[in-house]
Amino acid sequence: MQFIPVVNESPLPFFYSLLHSLCYAMLVLGDGARRLHVSAALSAKASVAMSRFEAGSAVNYEKLLNNISIVRKRLNRPLTLSEKIVYGHLDDPVGQEIARGRTYLRLRPDRVAMQDATAQMAMLQFISSGLPRVAVPSTIHCDHLIEAQIGGAQDLQRAKEVNQEVYNFLATAAAKYGVGFWKPGSGIIHQIILENYAYPGVMLIGTDSHTPNGGGLGAICIGVGGADAVDVMAGIPWELKCPNVIGVKLTGSLSGWTSPKDVILKVAGILTVKGGTGAIVEYHGPGVDSISCTDFELHFSMATICNMGAEIGATTSVFPYNHRMKTYLEKTGRKEIAELADEYKECLVPDSGCHYDQLIELNLSELKPHINGPFTPDLAHPVSEVGATAQKNGWPLDIKVGLIGSCTNSSYEDMGRAASLAKQALDRGLKCKAQFTVTPGSEQIRATIERDGYAKILRDVGGVVLANACGPCIGQWDRRDVKKGEKNTIVTSFNRNFTARNDANPATHAFVTSPEIVTALAIAGTLNFNPETDYLTDSKGEKFKLVAPTGDELPSRDFDPGEDTYQHPPTEGGSVRVDVNPQSNRLQLLEPFLKWDGKDLEDLQVLIKVKGKCTTDHISAAGPWLKFRGHLDNISNNLLIGAVNIDNDAVNKIKNQLTGEYGGVPDVARFYKANGVQWVVVGDENYGEGSSREHAALEPRHLGGRAIIVKSFARIHETNLKKQGLLPLTFSDPRDYDKIRPDDKISIVGLKSFTPGKPLAAVLKHSDGSSESIVLNHTFNETQIEWFQAGSALNRMKQLQK
Hints:
The chain is α/β, with parallel strands linked by helices. It is 32% helix and 17% strand. Residues 550-579 are annotated as: Disordered.
């Protein structure tokens, strides 16, 4: 509802008009009128653009306010902040059934963001939809295809040459369909979003699991697969299971060596990698504002915490709007949005007395520096104890490489705090004992730290400044200091440390921590060093302790934007040509999957029974495979090559049940497909945790898979499987996992009466002639069942267009 006062020459009639608008609001909205300020009515006279690149798309706090008022009245209770923003984007706030953890919400996100590795498949799917232009503001960010080898400039130039075909495809597809395009060298998608597109109350979906980074600016930003992005770009309501809400109440204040990164490292240790599944993590309490009193840059600190919420399986994470967010919006050229957010602030903070499904309380004053790992981001250790723990477990103490930056910790202050430690070492004649790399999060950060001298200090202490890209964080690292299989330790300020993720070496013990702890440990060269208590020896043989790091919140001379790397889409892109060479090994147009034949799935061969953790890195590896993200058949050659086969504890070695010979997982899958044999994968807990990459769902579908049966799924992967026409199913009794043998054939029955909430049955046919039945649960709703029946969500979209 919009209240626009009539403008008159005399101020008195204008006042009466404004008063009339407010009185009308009180009659219509009832209790909700308490939250409608006079200034909100005044602001209706002018719109505020969502970003400086999209003058025609306005921030719509009016709609958010109206939807919140409708839902609050319906539910008759106080709302959490995440509920306000999520329910504020309902397609039908009047009729939508709302039940946390149970119902599916139909939502209207404000915008879409895609990184280049996932954008290829997303845009190929959008092209297949036949639609002429995206329905909401959307952007593509080139950050994943730049491999770290030598240094920023050289690596960027090499990436432009090697990936020219892909970059050209993305640039022309963006221009044709109305999508903004951030060229290689711009920076990491999440940092660009924070600097340009995130703002309090916006709902954004992104084709990367760390999209929740934007929650540091009070936004609801959710990682999804490319097919979900296509729905939103097509103007179709997007479905999300109504999330539970985990509250994290912060009290006290940070000090010394303790950083905001330690908040999420501690939370990850509490909740584990699946503890946040199906929930939004909402930070609140007096500690939120107290962070700003410790010289920490609050908006980036909160972004760091929200970014790593992906590591606990959370749908997203969010902080309430406050004055630090306002300052950051102003510093990044969005003063008008900040002023509007002030007017609608009660939409951007939780209601008093709201209910959380789970509540965690953290006293920041008692929090100690943490370091998590190896091989999983939820194995938390105080820095003071990790050395002893490493010795006990036989983890290498010597640190080979320290790596700071990435989307998780690459703010101006992160770099400043690391530089303050490097300067102390240089002043005492020391350099890093370990190799040291620095990844700026964006061109703006790179240009500003170069101007202000931070980059020089970090180079002088032994660092190499890499390109503004994801780099080693996602495995884009041409590492040559150790051989594959050589046991070694690295410490990073990244977000993930799964086996072989950073350097493709399964023997690398990767630990994640704050950039200041990484820097201190790189200087010391060992895990057995606690900077709070331990001494270093300088070039003169004298002992000294590092002083706790410091850094400016924001640059005193404002940010240096650096090189302009944005390509604005033309007003009319119909004449733009998008070419995909049929002979290309990088890009491939998509063929629709076959629709369901109306029968039960009989005698599905078990392709592999996976033992233990199976992330999307295990299912569809990144690193050197990123080059094939736009070519479904080629990328399918990495299907499950990192998963452990329970039959022999081997990786990428399974028995071909038709020939009796052993082969790689994708090779056997292709053999089955060529011989008309459909198959199933059996997995353990939290199957598909990690990245949002939908290739982990597209590949099994492409190679003949029909179902994935596990103990539990990670949220994004389960949805991606549904989107591609697969059946993600869970054991009603987790112990039934043990009943399945690697050479079984499985029939899934009951599909003719496939309905929401009704389990399916599976008949396990053993090679000895015996059989047994088990019950399989699912989370399909009616719309998702239509995806399965049509063969995929994209097929169903095309059916509805006819």
